[in-house]
Amino acid sequence: MPLTVFRPRRLTALPTGRRNLFSTAVWLFAFPLLVPTPMTHAQSDSPQSDSSRAGSAEPTHWQLFVSAFAAGDEGAIRSFRLDANSGELTPLRDGVAIEHPFFFAFSPDGRFLYSIEAPGSFGGTEDEFLTAWKVSADGGTLTRLNRQSTRGTAACYVDVDATGKQALVANYLTGSVASFPIREDGSLGPIASFVQHSGSSVNPDRQVAPHAHCFTISPDNRFAYSADLGIDRILAYQLDPATGTISPAPQPFVRTPPGAGPRHLTFAPDGRNVYVINELLNSVTHFRYLPDSGFLIEGRTISTLPDDFIGTSHCADLKITPDGRFLYGTNRGHDSVVAYAIGEGGDLTLIEIRASLGQGPQNLAITPDGRWLLCANMPGNNLATFAIDPATGKLTPAGEPLATKSPSCIRILAADAGR
Q1: pLDDT per residue over 125-181, tens digit each?
Q2: Tens of pLDDT, residues 11-45
Q3: pTM for the full model?
Q4: What's the mean pLDDT in 66-89?
Q5: pLDDT range class, residue 64, cuts 50, 70, 90
Q6: What is the number of structural domains in the chain?
Q7: Is 18 exposed, middle or buried (0-12, 13-18, 19+ CB in 10 A)?
Q8: d(CA 361, CA 275)
Q9: What are the CA-CA distances from residue 103 to residues 99, 214, 282, 339, 346 (Å)?
Q10: Residue 239 and residue 249: Cα distance in Å, rounded?
Q11: 379 inside domain
Q12: Which residues, in sequence order, are bridge partners of residue 296?
């Protein structure tokens, strides 16, 4: 299918040079818009709950964990409860203290959580960590197990394979990926594989070096794909959960449109379609996934912004509903959530672009029943909840957003059926 690229957007001048690695990383990566003021493995934001496995009654609540991306005592992973009928969010506990937990993921059975940890500064000169936590039986408490170095800085993404034996990490600022074996007790072994990306692309401010921004596992648990913003490539690796290692896939990489800046990718529930959100060109690119080989075949690229928008904006995250009918992405700067219908063959059709109800929508989550979309407005310091219309995919706000410190990642733990 021929490539169609819609409306590249003007970019803001960004810091250059190697002045202060911490401030540069925060500007370029976490806060690119600073202004004054189960489902298939790869798609799921949550491990499958006991109640859903048993086919029990519809849940009355969903339990969420949300990271507070901050230094010192303000950095934390906190738990919340989402009312499955009204969409109301309620804080449950203060959570655990951890500095700069930008991203995290659960094990498939929900017994363990693996989070980024960056003591002191994020994207500084010291290597950062992947930290393992045990989740209590009631889902309310996290107990630290251990941590291992990621051998990089501005660590920004975590995924866990379907067997629960392997964890993956992407290091944004230093442009590398790593894999870790997971022990029987949920703790992490030292790095089993480490790959340093290389190269550059066309944007002189953001693409002079590699910047791995995600590392996502395929639904069949055979491959993992890293979107590298700095070199406009999706790099492919084969998984070996038994050893915790990775190796180059038969198709080592595919290119995205020049200057696109691929950030996150997700698989559709059908396991045949992949979508990449491009931070710099504010767009989503569709790929076909060939499970036998792991090859990605590029399709259409479509804009995430309105035709009349002339400001500065950068995409961040994307998610698909469990039934595979709707895809949502975030625009930081335009501060909105874009909604698409997924058609035959995986093509996208714009439904609407709705305000995110806060500054800098950073991360999304969709409940396993497909009824609610949650949006983490990180610099806006709030969580917004939207009802998803099952017929049209349109979003309706469920009341006012809930104030919370610097939310950067949302994960749904389990259905809470009257717990």
Answers
A1: 999 999 999 999 888 899 999 999 999 999 999 999 999 999 999 999 999 999 999
A2: 333 333 333 344 444 434 544 433 333 344 544 56
A3: 0.89
A4: 96
A5: very high
A6: 1
A7: exposed
A8: 18
A9: 11, 10, 22, 23, 28
A10: 9
A11: no
A12: 289
Report the alpha-carbon distance of residue 103 to residue 2 in Å, rounded: 35
Beta strands in 312-380 (DSSP E): 314-320, 326-332, 336-342, 348-355, 361-366, 372-377
Closest CA to 266 of 305, 227, 314: 227
Query: In the 8-state DSSP scheme, what is residue 25?
Result: H
- What is the tens place of the pLDDT at every residue in 276-302? 999 999 999 999 999 999 999 999 999
For the chain, the residue count is 419
Q: What is the mean pLDDT of the chain?
A: 89
Instruction: Give Rg (Cα) of the chain.
Output: 19
The distance in angstroms from the start CA to the end CA of the chain is 50
> What is the identity of the amino acid at 340?
Y
The verdict on residue 337 lying in a domain is no
Query: Quick one: CA dihedral 22, 23, 24, 27, positive or negative?
Result: positive
17's CB contacts (< 8 A; 6+ apart) are none
Is 359 contained in some domain?
no
Whether the CA torsion 356, 357, 361, 365 is positive or negative: it is: negative
**78 within 8 A of 68, measured Cβ to Cβ:** yes
Q: What is the dihedral of CA 397, 391, 413, 374, to 10 degrees?
A: -20
Report the C-alpha gap between 118 and 130 in whole angstroms. Answer: 9
Q: What pLDDT is recorded for position 59? A: 87
Q: Look at residues 303, 311, 322 and name the one whose alpha carbon lies nearest to residue 372.
A: 322
**308 lies in some domain:** yes
Using an 8 Å Cβ cutoff, are 324 and 275 in contact? no
How far, in Å, CA of 98 to CA of 9, rounded?
A: 36
Token duo for residue 256: 């995205």
Reading the block at residue 267, the tokens are: 């698989």
pLDDT number for residue 138: 84
Q: What is the DSSP letter of 346?
A: G
Structure tokens at 413: 């733990």
CATH code assigned at 81: 2.130.10.10
Q: Containing domain of residue 225, as a range?
A: 21-315+412-416
Cα-to-chain-centroid distance, residue 380: 18
Q: What sign has the CA pseudo-torsion 168, 244, 254, 171?
A: positive
Look at 394 and 139; give whichever has higher pLDDT.
Answer: 394
